[in-house]
Amino acid sequence: MHSICVVGTGYVGLVTGTCFAELGNHVACVDIDESKVKMLRSGKLPIYEPGLLELVQRNSAMGRLCFTTSYAEGMRDAEFVFIAVNTPASEGDGHADLRYVEAAAKSIGRHLDHDLVIINKSTVPIGTGDLVTRIVQEERKGDAQFAVVSNPEFLREGSAVVDCLNPDRVVLGATDRRAAEKVASLYLSLRCPIIMTDLATAEMIKYASNAMLAARISFINEMAEICEALGADVKQVALGMGYDKRIGSSFLEAGLGYGGSCFPKDVKALMHMADSAGCHPQLLQSVSDINADQRKRAVAKVQHLLGGLRGKVVGLLGLAFKPNTDDMREAASVDIASMLLAQGATVKAYDPVAESVARGLLHDVEYCHDAYAAAAESDALMVITDWNEFKQLDMQRIRGSMRTPILLDGRNMYDPAHMRELGFTYRGMGRN
Fold first, then answer.
1. Which residues are marked as active site?
2. CATH of the structural domain 3-197, one choice from 3.90.700.10, 3.30.70.60, 3.40.50.720, 1.25.40.390
3. C-alpha 161, offset from chain centre
4. CATH 3.40.50.720 spans which residues of the chain?
5. Separation of alpha carbons 135 and 116, rounded Å
6. Contact partners, residue 100, CB within 8 Å, separation at least 6
7. Residues ≥6 apart with Cβ < 8 Å to 157
8. Which end of the chain has fewer CB atoms at under 10 Å, N or C?
């Protein structure tokens, strides 16, 4: 059993700390937010993530997982300290804001009183490992030794616990090989490939991975626009492409584009790093532009079908950026609702878990208790998030409750022919 300190209790920190506790380690999670720590100590979560609550409660009860606002308490006897704080995109050029990483490094340095390994788990620009090393060296008071290892996360919100306990690979970057091998020992029981590189390469692997996935999404969304123009069905196109082993089927679902806490900011941050290095990231710029255009295209379709949006009522099914999470960061719903409201529409919405988060972002939306209420008396209905429960809706009831049966299926959940048989004016993304 190892003693681990995790700084930050957001998605990455909380899932990482809890899963290491589940593997039998003693884990102390540190967060400067007293209200969040109080909530976690009471067995409640500040986020929604399937399966996480049960693990937090079980490992807390067994004494393997604890939460504190004190670095001194959290780092006591720790062999490893993970930095898992937020690195949001800055206003303007989109470069990663490292203020929280820097603050964590300073606090770690000030409380460093024994040898340990510091691990960057946050998504950070190339060179951050060296930055953390420099900050800790400047802040430490004694002669305790440390090494910094880059260990980027590859968790998907909505399946983060499964991903953490069943990783495709573990990436470790370090200048000190022995430190990297120590961190590797934490993952041996997971029996996955472990890749050891230098710091810069490990940091770049994270950005390159997310940029590639974002590029696939934007690619299939551009194909969707072409499919519509030429009379093809993008779902069948993607199916046919996916059987090719060189391509595969993952991230080839046309829709409203990517969102969340990773893809948007990581693409922007990588573009900024490329620009700063004198490169010309034209593909990344196109990926970002196509993503923004998908939301505009969806609103334009509804506007065209209604002959204008002023005075119309539009219902939204789903608000979170993807199913099985309450995360609203860079969610398509925020852009779409804002565009609808700006053009004079009334917006009704329903989401199974994200309503409380959405209320802090969208103040002029009427929130409904279920999908049927969102559809009732609406002039158009837009599917924004592909929650499983929307697949089981009584669409005949939905059709009967609407003022005009216009259905914009932003996630291509429904069969177009069947929806038209039910009387809907149906539009998908890349389908005719």
1. 262
2. 3.40.50.720
3. 13
4. 3-197, 231-427
5. 15
6. 8, 85, 86, 87, 122
7. 11, 49, 260, 261, 322, 324, 325, 327
8. N
Q: If DSSP states are collapsed to H, E and C, what string results for the chain?
A: CCEEEEECCCHHHHHHHHHHHHCCCEEEEECCCHHHHHHHHCCCCCCCCCCHHHHHHHHHHCCCEEEECCHHHHHCCCCEEEECCCCCECCCCCCECCHHHHHHHHHHHHCCCCCEEEEECCCCCCCHHHHHHHHHHHHCCCCCCEEEEECCCCCCCCCHHHHHHCCCCEEEEECCHHHHHHHHHHHHHHCCCEEEECHHHHHHHHHHHHHHHHHHHHHHHHHHHHHHHHCCCHHHHHHHHHCCCCCCCCCCCCCCCCCCCCHHHHHHHHHHHHHHCCCCCHHHHHHHHHHHHHHHHHHHHHHHHHCCCCCCEEEEECCCCCCCCCCCCCCHHHHHHHHHHHCCCEEEEECCCCHHHHHCCCCCCEECCCHHHHHCCCCEEEECCCCHHHHHCCHHHHHHHCCCCEEEECCCCCCHHHHHHCCCEEECCCCC
pLDDT at 323: 95
**Whole-model pTM?**
0.91
Kindly report, residue by residue over 76-95, the tens digit of the pLDDT.
999 999 999 998 887 767 78
Model confidence pLDDT, tens digit, residues 297-327: 999 999 999 999 999 999 999 999 999 999 9
Tokens representing 111?
A: 């409380």
Q: In this model, does residue 416 exceed pLDDT 80?
A: yes
Q: What is the pLDDT of residue 161?
A: 94
Nearest CA to 54 among 65, 43, 39? 43
Whether residue 411 has pLDDT greater than 90: yes
Mean local confidence (pLDDT), 153-175: 94
CA 280 to chain centre: 26
What confidence tier does 157 reach under pLDDT thresholds 50, 70, 90?
confident
Q: Is the pLDDT of residue 354 over 80?
A: yes
* pLDDT score for 1: 86
- For residue 253, name the pLDDT band (cuts at 50, 70, 90): very high
> Hunting for tokens 């030429």 — which residue is that?
230
Quick one: which of 138, 129, 78 has its CA closest to 107?
Answer: 138
The per-residue pLDDT for 224 is: 97
Domain 231-427 has CATH 3.40.50.720: yes
